[in-house]
Amino acid sequence: MSIFGTNTNTTEAKDTELVDPPNDSISCMSFSPTADYLAVGSWNHEVRIYEVGPQGQSQGKAMFKNEGPVLSVCWNKEGNKVFSGGMDKTARMFDLQTGQTTQVASHDDAVKCVRWVDAQGGILATGSWDKTIKYWDLRQSTPVAKVDLPERCYTMDVVYPLLVVGTADRQVLVYDLNNPTTVFRTITSPLKWQTRVVSCFPTGKGFGMGSIEGRVAMQYVDEKEAGNNFSFRCHRKEQGLSKNNTHIYSVNDISFHPVHGTFSTAGGDGVVSFWDGDSKTRLKYGVVSFWDGDSKTRLKSLDAAPGPIPCTAFNKTGAIFAYAVSYDWSKGHSGMTPDHPNKVMLHLTKDDEVKRRPRK
User: Fold this and answer.
1) Strand order of the sheet with strand 26-31?
2) pTM for the complete prediction?
3) Contacts for 140 with CB less than 8 Å, ≥ 6 apart
4) Tell me, which fold does domain 12-331+342-354 have in CATH?
5) Strand pairing of 251-256 and 272-278?
6) Do residues 255 and 273 lie in contact, with contact meaning Cβ atoms separated by under 8 Å?
């Protein structure tokens, strides 16, 4: 039974709209690692959990609230608990089996990122604007460890044993979670403007990062592979015939395909592209771009959306790709107008969109 309703309406591109989305800006989303359940966090303090069918049909299954806007969500390894963090300076855990919500972490400022660490029975990592990362054993009320950062945590991701955090001063800190309180490496972002997102490779060998200036960089952790690092421009629109009149948009999210390792970029221009990083080729162009990082190829982009794309997620097999169409706050409070859409679209991926291209 759905608590929100059901929906199978599709757009011209045959992407399905998620039933009964949040009524305020959508900030984050995450698929369960064990089933096709999607958690969606928003500025109206809610986390909504949906069941998604193989053809894009959806129904609401549960909802819980924070005491402020939600900025980040994640699942535990077993897929039976959802974690959220946000402006109320706490992280909360929702148990899908009992329906109970529990506060499990606290900071002195907003919790910008929550990530589950699959080690030692499971640890929750929280990154905050209070310039710390804290590690939480859910059986304890205080953190098992704390890391001081040089600046506010703007973005963080984990693929064990790799943890990467991007801070407000364009610093990127890399941690080996076998030694979680000691920085393994600190780099200054190769991108000239503020870091918007970091996303770890599924292999844990490196990470992608995007900036507010429409650029993406792929970075390997092992310095022996530094020759494979690269960056590129994306999410830009030329106005008229002059290349000097280009509108530049933020890269809001990067999601890696869990099987093929290709990746998507989503931006403030309402575009998502699929890319092949090996051949450096875009696989598909439009709303969302999917990339193959090895070939450095854009594989495909979906048709442009009627608003910014703040966040994206693949399901556990990579067969379903979810993307939100909502205000991304890139223009501050003044840019938040009543006509901004708030919806989540479900795209059923095809092999030619997400599989790597042969090297030339």
Assistant:
1) 6-7, 58-65, 46-52, 37-42, 26-31
2) 0.89
3) none
4) Methylamine Dehydrogenase; Chain H (2.130.10)
5) unpaired
6) no
